[in-house]
Amino acid sequence: FLAQVEIIAATNVSAIVLREKDLEETVYEALAKDCITLCTHYNKKLILHFFLESAHRLNHPYIQLSLSQLETYRKAGLLSDFAQIGTSVHSVDDVRLAEQLGADYVFAGNIFETDCKKGLPGRGLEFLENVCKEVDIPVYAIGGITAEKMPQILGTGAAGGCMMSGFMQLKEK
Q1: In Å, how far are 32, 84, 92, 102, 124 from 60, measured between CA atoms?
Q2: Quick check: 152 pLDDT over 70?
Q3: Which among 97, 148, 154, 165 is most buried, taking Cβ atoms within 10 Å?
């Protein structure tokens, strides 16, 4: 896994999200330490995901939370240490709430059908465009995103797109 993260960090990506919420938090935190080291070496932003306490212990400034986590942690005053906070949205109402809660950016999806969400139809480019029009924060498309689809994604007003499968299949040059 770390070898693949290094291959990805060596590309022109702007950030990597360490999304491994199925791991136990202690295992995630150890993995996060190694990924922080790798991403720092390649001058890439690493965004931790889900595990707020690990991010606090690691004194890491970037985190991606679910919308419900964002709401809960914002109300509890637990987010002041972060330089950038993102969340995922699945509707226009979600994106409005995310912006009200102080999200710095959102991942909107799933835009296209994807193996990660088997059987769930994509919400499509019109959905993405509607989400982008609702807020003043960057919106990144997620779900079935490929390099070939990026011109369509950017045409909606999105700031970019998030890919998983394509990056996990990259080979070292």
Answers
A1: 10, 10, 30, 18, 33
A2: yes
A3: 97
